[in-house]
Amino acid sequence: MAVTIKDVAKKAGVSPSTVSRVLSNHPRISKETSIKVKNIMNELGYHSNMMARSLVSNKTYTLGMILPRPAEELFQNHFFAENIRGITTQAARNGYDVLMTAGANDSDEMEAITRLVLGRRVDGIILLQSRKHDPIITFLREHDFPFVLIGRYEEDPNVLCVDNDNIQAAFDATSHLISQGHTRIGFVSGPPSLSVSQDRLEGYRQALAEHQLQMKSEWIVEGEFLQESGYRAMSFFMSLPERPTALVIIDDVVSFGVMRGLTELGYSVPEDLSIIGFNNISLTELSTPPLSSIDIGIYQLGYMASQMLIKRIQGETQPQPRTIVPHRLMIRESSLHYKAKRSGV
Amino acid sequence: MAVTIKDVAKKAGVSPSTVSRVLSNHPRISKETSIKVKNIMNELGYHSNMMARSLVSNKTYTLGMILPRPAEELFQNHFFAENIRGITTQAARNGYDVLMTAGANDSDEMEAITRLVLGRRVDGIILLQSRKHDPIITFLREHDFPFVLIGRYEEDPNVLCVDNDNIQAAFDATSHLISQGHTRIGFVSGPPSLSVSQDRLEGYRQALAEHQLQMKSEWIVEGEFLQESGYRAMSFFMSLPERPTALVIIDDVVSFGVMRGLTELGYSVPEDLSIIGFNNISLTELSTPPLSSIDIGIYQLGYMASQMLIKRIQGETQPQPRTIVPHRLMIRESSLHYKAKRSGV
DNA sequence: ACGGGTTGTGCAAACGGTTTACCAACTGAA
DNA sequence: TTCAGTTGGTAAACCGTTTGCACAACCCGT
């Protein structure tokens, strides 16, 4: 049905091997033959069959990933979309495609990975998340299969991964609030088991320490990456005899919960409470007031992961296993003008 | 390196063909042999090579799609993420994976499609968008290659597609406002060239007509799917001598522009102006007040598209080429209690 | 005991490429 | 003239599966 290398060969009066060599720019093919064959290829509309090519070359030019299961977190959709855009764009630039597969549960997922790896469907894998002692990572390491993790894997420092410097990011966010004149700053954290929570808390600590500011344990609360957590944290803070005047908040969605609660209680942002969140989701610009946030470069995370993986596949060794994607402060209304009001302007 | 069908055959003392038949549950393989071979497969950790299998069977069990290029519209990320989740989940249920590829420009994209189709990398394609007289669609039809479009294609009624009933959706949104006691209802539209804009406007018209309500052309404004468009529309409406008391707005992001503008001018939603948007993006719940919206079932759109495509690939004929995904009214604060305030409650 | 239908399995030819080994013809230097 | 070294190309093996055809062994009714 489809036109094969043999059809081209026959029409050009050469052998299939010659056509193959033309395709791969083999040095020992004459200019003349090459041009002749290429013309015939165009004429016949030849396009090489990737399956056949993969079979013999053992390369698929495909990166695999598994679709993260729908998480409760609102942030997920944004992260997922931006991330995949970064991954796919970079892959495309290097001639790779991205294969996505889904699993309804853990064993499904494991089976999917097995299928991709052992079935030789992909050349490498990008993981969008990991658990402690992740069996998927164990599997991939055992088979010495190329993969890159977005995030970080405590158990094994040799795992290739790309991540943010969350300590520094929180440090910067906190410092920004300090620079706005705040001295009483609280922190709304996520689940304490997550390394993001730990790292951001640490950055917050360091910034306060550097400026010799008071750090009260009651100004640190933990929650989920949900709006409700923000709402609850806000209620708590506002009930304190000595309130913070600004908050560093683990995630934008949580920040929205805080903002909403404040509005309901008749307080205003940033005058009564200045806030800054993390992740810079698109809604930050739309809220009233617009929310200051740390942009963690989600697209870039995907982009770099893709790049690292392709290098790894092609045998380049990485100088170090971890790549850090820089973050950016996106300062908006929610964390500005505090001083202005205080000083009566 | 990897364990092949031959290794299994050798160890089991049978021929490769027998192993292959065990794999495909061929009826004429004895229970005995089947079990023996299966044991050996487990023992050796055998997994069949998809490339080889595809080569001979001419099936890849893969659906292809091209990554939409970053659009200006905020809504895109949410749509993309939900959509792909639907597509991939349904695909996985049927044993298919999804291959994503990206193109930086039109010709890139065309080349990518060619690669997937002619290179026999996928069994079918899902298109997330289309242009008028889309060359990609022309190409696919010419090659009689299975594909499904999310959206609709005016030029060819035979194209398989899945879409919403936007006329009905806008009808329902408008009717809802009417049921809340509004009689002066405006419409904020998108680019008039898009069929979404046309259809939603039509639904709005029909609802007003059914209730014999006044339809003033100055109560209909066009814009982009951007916040600014909403802001501008709002300014315009509020400057009119005879203002609408409620708005049907083509998109949630636009609605946020309206809400923000109203807040800035000291008006309040829904008391001064009730609004309802489309698409039900996640922020709708987070805004103050929460925004009423029409949920167009984005996940479902992807899910159905995937299903249609797989059926088409497997040779099932569809009763009709278009599938309509039902929409749902998500009523929130922004379009409620209008009457209540009017009557002084 | 014999032919005809099942059953269970092996052989070998695809599928569409790549790649190794090999060869013929042409250089050019000794 | 001869021999070694290029240059341009062919033939055949191979990648891992599937599958049509052949065939032996059995089962059953006559």
Automatic annotation (TrEMBL), chains A, B:
It comes from the Bacteria. Residues 3-57 form the HTH lacI-type domain. GO terms for molecular function: DNA-binding transcription factor activity; transcription cis-regulatory region binding. Keywords: DNA-binding, Transcription, Transcription regulation. SMART domains: HTH_LACI (SM00354). PROSITE patterns: HTH_CROC1 (PS50943), HTH_LACI_1 (PS00356), HTH_LACI_2 (PS50932). Residues 4-47 form the HTH cro/C1-type domain. InterPro entries: Cro/C1-type_HTH, HTH_LacI, LacI/GalR-like_sensor, Lambda_DNA-bd_dom_sf, Peripla_BP_I. PANTHER family: HTH-TYPE TRANSCRIPTIONAL REGULATOR GALS, LACI-RELATED TRANSCRIPTIONAL REPRESSOR. This is LacI family transcriptional regulator. It comes from Paenibacillus selenitireducens.
